[in-house]
Amino acid sequence: AHSYPAGIHFEDSTSSNSTSISAFREDRIPNTSTSYNNLKESTMSSPFVRVALTTSKSATLMRAAGKKSGTSLNGDARNDLIKKVLFDAPSRSPVRLSQDDLSRHETIERAWKLVRQQQKQANAESLARKFEMMRKANAELELISPVLFKHSQTKERNAVFPRQLRTLTDTPSKQIWNYRNDKSVKA
């Protein structure tokens, strides 16, 4: 057992590796009131230890973070309450439509699904046509020049995307194109 100033005593438990803390045991402190007040002042200034006072003039040392609350999700009920007040959206009542509005809504939804289906079908047909044209061009290139066909089919090793490529934007660049190739013309 290790004794520390102001009556704090740590006992090593042999049954487990944890250390139990006992403080302010009246049998270990000769003058309870003065030692208690001195210890109270010294431990309250420490950021890591706080004294929880009880009615029998004994105290328990606790961690400064405190115990986690069993009712909160994040460990602190105050934080949960603040988050609930600040970030929870008010519940909205469901929109009630009349029978005519409901039939109009369903008609619009079906029409939109039909438009999306037609767009997907047109896109698939366009891709199929492009792939077929690419296949025909490759077959013709193979007949005309087998060397070029072989080079067109090989992949470049360790090819990476060009890092210096300018991002496409809707606005013009800060430096305009110099048609006269003069170094003095700048935007």
Automatic annotation (TrEMBL):
Gene Ontology cellular component list: mitochondrion; ribonucleoprotein complex; ribosome
Keywords, comma-separated and alphabetical: Mitochondrion, Ribonucleoprotein, Ribosomal protein, Transit peptide
GO biological process: mitochondrial translation
Residues covered by region (Disordered): 1-38
Cell compartments where the protein resides: Mitochondrion
Major site of localization recorded for this protein: mitochondrion
A single MF term (Gene Ontology): structural constituent of ribosome
InterPro entries reported for this sequence: Ribosomal_mL40, Ribosomal_mL40_fung
Composition bias, Low complexity: 13-22
Keyword Ribosomal protein: yes
Keyword flag Transit peptide: yes
One Pfam entry name: MRP-L28
Family assignment from sequence similarity: Belongs to the mitochondrion-specific ribosomal protein mL40 family.
Name of the protein this chain belongs to: Large ribosomal subunit protein mL40
Species, as recorded: Lunasporangiospora selenospora
